[in-house]
Request: fold
Amino acid sequence: MSKCILCNNNPYVVIKFISGNYLHFCKSCWEKIKIFTLKNKKNKKKEKECPVCKYTIAEFNEYRFLGCDFCYEYFYNEVISYLKKIHTDIFFKGKYPKRFKNQKSNLKKIFISESSIDKIKIVNGKFK
Amino acid sequence: MGNSNNVFDIIEKNTRWIYSKLGKDIVITSRVRLARNIKGYPFPHNMTNEQSKEIENILINIFLKMPFGTILIIDVSSLNELEKNILIERHLISKEFSENGTFSKVIIIPEKKLTVMINEEDHLRIQVIYPGLNLKKCWSIANEIDNYIDEKVEYAFSPNFGFLTACPTNIGTGLKASVLINIPSIKFLKKEKSIFNMIEKIGINIRGFYGEGSSPFGSIYQISSSESTGKTEKEIIKEIESVVKLIKKEEMNCIEEIKKNETLKTKIYKMMEEICGEKNSNASESYSIISLAFNLGILKIDNKEFKKLFFSFLSGYEKINNNFIFYKKEGKILKREIWETINV
Reply:
């Protein structure tokens, strides 16, 4: 079963990110990401920053490096448009590591848009 | 750790495989490199010292348990210039890595012709170098090692992007396939520009002797894949192999053209005389003519002597002086032999 993408603990929720990937988070990490995302929305002047490694979009634009693996999910749009400039074809066709083969999740898949994050109630590990 | 000579000797003896096929074949070495990172850690440029140390410990412990005979674990920051240079000359580490500072470990497993850099641009750079043209074998071993490590750690990976790397130019397969080729006849007939333009149009890179940002050494260039995604690993390798076959054919055609042309052969003789003379000569250009003369049979020395010449030129590459052939005792004797060979 998949573990929390950030701390490897048992997952609490599966979130579909804008990239289309389903990412598992434990309760504690999900709370932090939720708070971080809401804070960023309120403080519109602050530049986009990866919640895990604090690498900023400005640093990506300058150095063309990313800070950690989570940056690829968090800066998905910016990364995709850069990749389209440097690669002829960005569709991945190579080998997969073992943990991605035949992976199944036991948790309910939840589709969340940014606007509904603050409307979710969590009761006993299940979403309402 | 013992005296410096021992460290240099250990590295030298255990890495001789790299140039073992240096000779008349245009392909000197084949290389496959895989870039990998461990999930949940920042990429090397964004890590704390503590995190760098953790990555090192995780990876070194994995390699120590591999059942492959001799494993050398080298702390590059503790090496002197000579020791670093031999690793760079044999393409086992990059120049940037040699200047990394404290957290720069390289693992060499001679039995597998494998080198691993820890915390270079990515957490892990797996590299297999085979003498001559043998990209399939390089890939087979790199894949074997990659699968072994995959059992022990969780790689940073996304189904959207593939294997995740610090620089997006390496994402996807994380694979770079390259060959070092020597094309003295093509260079002598000044055909390299048109050939390289054609190759670059199909997305293959032409680089210097040490890869990106370096100059060619004589007529030695690096041909490498540029795309790490949008293709399978086998497709990337097949592409390089096809390009090498084309270049090989062209080099053979150029050799035949020179052999049939007395004016060109006389020109080569004269250039060899100048190299063996007392004049100030450029090491890189001179090596190109010497390997041309060797391939044409004008320079009658055996493979062993040819290799000796290569190494003496390589070491003195950046420090050219008037008597570059004389700076070593062996070189002086060799110079006389070259002269006599031409005059016979």
In short: The first helix of chain B runs from residue 4 to 14. The interface with chain A takes residues 37, 39-43, 45-46, 143, 147, 150-151, 154-164, 166-169, 171-173, 175, 203, 227-233, 235 of chain B (CB under 8 Å). Residues 308 and 331 of chain B are 9 Å apart (CA to CA). The radius of gyration of chain B is 21 Å.
